[in-house]
TrEMBL record:
PANTHER family: OS04G0438300 PROTEIN, OSJNBA0006B20.18 PROTEIN. This is DUF7912 domain-containing protein. Residues 206-296 form the DUF7912 domain. It comes from Zostera marina. The lineage of its organism: Eukaryota, Viridiplantae, Streptophyta, Embryophyta, Tracheophyta. Residues 63-81 have a biased composition (Acidic residues). InterPro entries: DUF7912 (IPR057234).
């Protein structure tokens, strides 16, 4: 395996002392459980978020990591599927544990750890969104940690799938960091804070019902409650396509997505296309039954 390392100055992006960007290139590996041993409702994507970039705050080094965007396609010439991060070594927190709505990561929403300056960080991010970007770059998720880390995911409302470009992420990072530094001088934010800004992620949560129209043509992972008169409610999941939804009744209809993980169901399928019965299969449920819907 060959690793390519390239160092270039970042003076065109950051003011002040010269910083160095290191570009790494390596293959990504996806691991999935054997498909044939599981029923169709138990399949879940195991692909990690796609990392494109990292950058740092003052007096720290910067790294940029690039990878092909296999999921979102080429909607934008530069798509910011990654993050900019202050110069600290971190584990990928968003890759640990299960995504859930409001987790402050790919599940979206605000997740605060209870620090005295939590709400200040949220307010500043909202102000930057409106004052510097006219609300087009909006908070998708924000999470604070006890180690003074602020993790922010932004979405671009003017694009079909809400994907910001790499330039968008850089610009928001710089604007947000400048305002945070002002708050530091006033004692409202700790001086040793760290900042990480990213896109929503390739497997971002789909907010119900407001995001259904935007992502109606995308394959989705759906986790939902089932109930009947004779059985208690159970949790099921599957890889589906959205057939239709009705805002008035608060309901939606799903079909089996024509993807490899579904085509490999059963010993006899061996990756063959979906049969007529599978293509015509439908599942109707209420919005309230949906525990989690995210892009697949």
């Amino acid at each position: 395996m060959e690793v390519v390392v390239l160092s270039v100055p970042l003076t065109a992006i950051f003011h002040g002392p010269t910083r160095t960007t290191t570009v790494h290139s390596w293959p990504r590996v996806k691991v999935r459980p054997p498909a044939s041993s599981l029923p169709i409702h138990l399949f879940q994507s195991a692909s990690p978020p796609i990392i494109l970039s990292r950058a740092t705050s003052k007096n720290s080094s910067a790294e940029v990591e690039e990878s092909d965007d296999e999921i979102m396609g080429k909607e934008e010439e530069e798509e910011g599927e990654g993050y900019f991060e202050d110069g600290i070594e971190l584990e990928e927190e968003d890759d640990v544990g299960e995504t859930y709505v409001g987790d402050g990561g790919e599940g979206g929403g605000i997740s605060l750890c209870g620090l005295s300056w939590d709400n200040v960080a949220v307010s500043i991010a909202e102000e930057v969104s409106m004052s510097s970007f006219d609300g087009d770059l909006k908070i998708f998720a924000l999470k604070t940690s006890a180690n003074q880390l602020i993790q922010l995911r932004i979405e671009k409302l003017s694009t079909k799938y809400g994907s910001p470009t790499l330039t968008d992420i850089i610009d928001f990072t710089n604007a947000y960091r400048a305002r945070l530094d002002e708050a530091v001088t006033k004692g409202a934010i700790p001086h040793n804070y760290s900042l990480q800004v990213s896109s929503p992620g390739a497997e971002r949560a789909v907010r119900i019902p407001e995001d259904l129209e935007r992502f109606k043509d995308r394959t989705m992972f759906v986790k939902y409650h089932t109930s009947s008169e004779s059985e208690q409610s159970q949790m099921e999941q599957g890889i589906f396509k959205l057939i239709s939804f009705d805002m008035d009744s608060g309901s939606c209809i799903w079909g089996i997505a024509d993807v490899r993980v579904n085509r490999e169901q059963g010993e006899k399928s061996k990756g063959r296309p979906l049969n007529k019965k599978q293509k015509e299969w439908r599942l109707q449920m209420s919005f309230k039954s949906l525990q989690l819907v995210r892009l697949y």
